[in-house]
Amino acid sequence: MKLSSIIFIWGMLLCSSLNLFAQQTDFKNFETRESTLDERWELTSESSQGTFVVVPYKPIYILPGRWSNRPNKLPTSLNPDNVAKIPNDYNNFEARFQLSIKTKITSGLLFGKGDIWLGFTQTANWQVFNEKLSRPFRELNYEPEVIFNYPLPSDASIFGLKPKMVGLALNHQSNGKSLPYSRSWNRVVFHAAFEYRDLSFTIRPWIRFSEKFDTDDNPQIGNYIGVGDATFVYTHKEQVFSLLVRSNMRLNNRFKGYADFTWSYPIKGNLKAILQVTHGYGETLIDYNYKQTTVGLGVSLIEWL
């Protein structure tokens, strides 16, 4: 099949999926909001949409063109069963897309304010330009979660800084592959979110559920992906600037980290052009102990805002 046909079919499928999702989701709420966190997490009675309503979670985007300075052609792990023996001839250019949704399944917990959500995120890295390897999906990451979220008093403020919510999640992430490419882990992820004028930020430390070494797909993953992350989002005249950073918090020569910067610019309605630049370890699960730099261009419907 020709590359043009593949891209056309891929684009039609994605557009159809996003269109169906848009029809079932009230994107207008996210278009005119002032308090992002209030709207995205339904922290007030005015923003509540009830239970079992599908809404966006993490960014939803398509990057038809994405460059890596050094694609991971021979994934390794400290577990010898998860070490690839034959390198893959991956291209430096590939496509990437992400879909992410959540739905509230119950509310009114813990003094009548806490909510429980189910979340799901899928990220795909597709070697669509690699005809030699029959254009495979290099990596698919699946991330289901059960999230407890608790809103903080709306009038709380410390020198203009407004604490908005706290909570925790049971998080599983895996790539669904068999040995030697299998990668997965389970975590308890805590979160606290704040707003200051046009800036919002969320801090998420986590604790990994321990596994035996001989059954662990990615031993010492925390040494590379880190022990938590922080996401900063700034809006300016409908443009959105976001920065996600994470590290292992080691202030020595064992420091490992990762940064993901995204800039979105409105095109029409909810459609926005985006630039995404990443650097560091753990760009995907298969790359958890591998450092690279990527640059991608594409479009989005939903960012962190």
Automatic annotation (TrEMBL):
Protein keywords: Calcium, Cell outer membrane, Hydrolase, Lipid degradation, Lipid metabolism, Membrane, Metal-binding, Signal, Transmembrane, Transmembrane beta strand
Similarity field: Belongs to the phospholipase A1 family.
Cofactor note: Binds 1 Ca(2+) ion per monomer.
Pfam entry (one): PLA1
Membrane topology: Multi-pass membrane protein
Cofactor(s) needed for function: Ca(2+)
A GO term for molecular function: calcium ion binding
Primary localization class, coarse: membrane
Signal peptide as annotated in the record: 1-22
Catalytic reaction list: a 1,2-diacyl-sn-glycero-3-phosphocholine + H2O = a 1-acyl-sn-glycero-3-phosphocholine + a fatty acid + H(+); a 1,2-diacyl-sn-glycero-3-phosphocholine + H2O = a 2-acyl-sn-glycero-3-phosphocholine + a fatty acid + H(+)
Active site: 172 (proton acceptor), 174 (nucleophile)
Entry GO terms, CC: cell outer membrane
One GO-annotated biological process of the protein: lipid catabolic process
Residue numbers binding Ca(2+): 134, 182, 217
Source organism: Myroides guanonis
Assembly and binders: Homodimer; dimerization is reversible, and the dimeric form is the active one.
Enzyme class per UniProt: hydrolase
Protein name listed in UniProt: Phosphatidylcholine 1-acylhydrolase
Gene3D superfamilies listed in its UniProt record: Phospholipase A1
EC code: 3.1.1.32, 3.1.1.4
Localization (cell): Cell outer membrane
InterPro entries cross-referenced by the UniProt entry: PLipase_A1, PLipase_A1_sf
